[in-house]
Specification:
The protein has helices at 2-10, 12-54, 63-110, 115-123. It is mainly α and 125 residues long. Helix 1 (2-10) crosses helix 2.
């Protein structure tokens, strides 16, 4: 450790470069953290404002109740989304089966005898 300190005191240009690099790294870390914190604050204020304006008489008395209510609501929405996804998959499978049946039926139509040709054969003496 003494060697590093001595090297930095003997070479001020290297010390300035190291300090600049450390400050640059700290700046970019805090820049991301500050952006993330601001986004989270904006989202929290928007959700709180929505609940306040929609139902001002039933707003929670403290933050803990509000967070718990939001968690249960998000869980219910997630369950409904999963159910809708599963129903969509079932409908997709049914649609694929219907298309396959339609292709099979169309193939059978091509195999039917040509009645016009038979009728034309009967007209000729």
């Amino acid at each position: 450790m003494e060697g590093i300190v001595r090297a930095m005191t003997e070479h001020p240009l290297a010390a300035m470069a190291v300090c600049f690099a450390v400050l640059l790294i700290v700046y970019f870390l805090f820049k991301r953290l500050i952006k993330l914190a601001l986004i989270l604050i904006i989202v929290a204020v928007a959700i709180g404002g929505y609940f306040y304006f929609q139902h001002p008489e039933s707003r929670p008395t403290n933050l803990k109740d509000a967070v718990e209510k939001a968690r249960t609501g998000a869980g219910k929405a997630l369950d409904q989304g999963k159910e809708a996804y599963e129903k969509g998959k079932e409908l997709l499978d049914k649609g694929k089966n219907a298309v396959e049946k339609g292709k099979d039926a169309a193939g059978d139509i091509g195999k039917l005898p040509d009645r016009n040709k038979e009728a034309g054969d009967r007209r000729k003496p």
